[in-house]
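Sequence design from tokenized structure. All designs in this work follow the same two-part layout: the structure record, then the generated sequence. An example of the structure record is given first.
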């Protein structure tokens, strides 16, 4: 892999703090639950459900975007590295999604809008829309749209 020409990580530190705190509290609950009566175990179940939600929040606490000579890469939290070859890119532009755009239609920061249109973001409404030569687009959410546009030559 070549070194990045552009690299930026958008962070939401509050979500990371909440996620780590939840994991610690769940570990304590799980340890103590072995000695609790059955009626108290329901509280542990509720805590585990709460922990699952907070684990999702931890997953969404950061998004990293990199641009190399060959490709545009991005990753939400510890998720998979997504790639797009630079020669597949037709055009780029800064967009602001509507307040409702993506909220409720995304799962772990990823939304699909048929056909061939995807959005990836963790917070905010700013994104860089990357139009593809074969049709469709990818919207990469960022709190540095001008920096990413400049790196992409847009």
């Amino acid at each position: 892999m070549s070194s990045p020409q552009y690299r930026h990580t958008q962070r939401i530190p509050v979500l990371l703090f909440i996620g780590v705190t939840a994991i610690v509290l769940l570990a304590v609950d799980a340890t103590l639950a072995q000695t609790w009566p059955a009626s108290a175990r329901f509280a542990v179940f509720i805590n585990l459900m709460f922990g699952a939600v907070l684990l999702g929040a931890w997953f969404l606490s950061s998004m990293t975007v990199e641009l190399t000579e060959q490709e545009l890469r991005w990753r939400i939290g510890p998720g998979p590295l997504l790639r797009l070859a630079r020669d597949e890119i037709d055009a780029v532009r800064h967009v602001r999604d509507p307040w409702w755009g993506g909220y409720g239609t995304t799962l772990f920061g990823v939304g699909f809008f048929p056909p061939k249109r995807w959005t990836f973001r963790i917070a905010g409404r700013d994104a860089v829309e990357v139009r593809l030569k074969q049709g469709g687009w990818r919207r990469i959410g960022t709190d540095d749209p001008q920096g990413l546009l400049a790196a992409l030559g847009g």
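The CA atoms of residues 92 and 130 lie 5 Å apart. We note this feature because it recurs in several other targets discussed in the main text.
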